[in-house]
Model the fold of this input.
Amino acid sequence: MRDNSAAQGPPGGSIPLHLGAGTAPINRRTPILLWGLAATGLGLTIAVLLSNGEMRAIVLLLLTILGLVCLSPKRGIYIILVFLPFMYFLRRQVLHFNEFSKTDPILLFPPLVTIAMFLGYMIFYTADFYKYIRRSLLMKLLVALQVLYFLEIFNPLQGSLLVGVAGAMYFMIPMLWVFMGLLLDERGIRRIFMIVMVIGTITAAYGMYQHSFGLSDVEKYEAESKNFVMIFGAKVRVMSTFSSTGDFSFYASITAFLAFAHFWRARTNLTYFVPAGLAASAMFWGSVRGTMFGLAFSIIMFLIVQGRNRPQILLRAIMACVVVGSIYGYLYTYTPIEIWEVSRSKDPFVVRSVSGLAHPTEESSFNARVENWTYVVKSSFTEYPAGRGLGSTTLAARKFEGEAARTVDSMFFELMYGSSPLAALLFLLITLVVFRDLLTLTIKAAEPFTQRVMFGVLAAFFLGSYFGQSLRDSVNSPFAWLLIGWTVREIVARKEAEEARHDAGSTA
Done:
């Protein structure tokens, strides 16, 4: 009987490989030998560096290898998002062996890898890039803002060119994550939600450990080296694995919101209270009032878009305004001192949090910011309408001897000050178009859970960018720009689907 197994090919549907009579056999020894030599060389290099105490060099070497793995953009998305919350923790461990450096090259790893991932996208997905530019107003606005950023790098008013280049790390590099969002489907976005929630739970638990047992010696050393004030009375504001209390508190607020949203979806899985409780506790002991408002705003927006059409959503929004207005109308009938007395606590964290939440407009820090923003608006339209340079409002302005360093405490007003009022206008338009597109996606989706969660997350980021710097935060903002990129992808895909149905109907 004839054997047809060879004709049918190997199992799994693979194509059989037929070698001719003169074909040399495949030599597997060469790649195995090369891998062995590379591994041996790497091991010897690490051993020599370790014997000399060059821990920073070892970390940089290992990060270089990790960066090569990230050259596949889809794989790099997950690697970098996992790495970012622990980047400063890794940097602190190096301080056990090496001195603190303000220009630590370890901090360059995420920006350099992000640039490489972006170049990979432009090389392999060029057609998609032009398609999104052509069909998405949001993408046009994002690219226009990036072009303006690039021009402001060379603004001489900020001092050294290094100030502009360093400023690009705060403003331009995080925005490149928009292109990473174009690569993900809905399953990928939900997977990232879970990754953020897990990491947020771990870092919140470590933050609570810091609050209970204090900072480690190396954490204290880093804080002193950066002149970073974190103390109220005798207690320390926790920062967990992040660079500052603010970054950590914002990540915790996103974690708490994601946990709430996942619980709200079915209202049966009580395990979501664990990350929500840990994150909320860590936020409280960080005592960053802005992130507390951000969490509340996320939840409110998430509940508003539970409506299935625009009239329902509008009604929910009106009800939310009435409820919030009534609460603050009641709270403002009391003085801050009376509110403190009701709390019956002398804990500095409690006093700071309660006063800020109950009377936000009467806080000295808020009034100082309003005064600062008023100056920014006046001077930007009269003295420097072309801006003062991309890095003029960042730490880079001081680090590289910039000429126009100014603390603004608002990304929106930073854009007005450093990149001209046109940049602030573009950012305002981006805000409006993002939520317009998200609202469209939410209403038309068959199962809109992902879109509703994104609505809440991005609401916190944009609120935090008008009253803070959330969308230029090098640790947290890549997540938000990724979601904005996915919004571009989905709105274009919906337009294409509608056009295809219209063409099919016309043909019929």
Notes: Residues 124-496 form one domain. Confidence is low (pLDDT under 50) at residues 1-19. Strands lie at 231-232, 235-236.
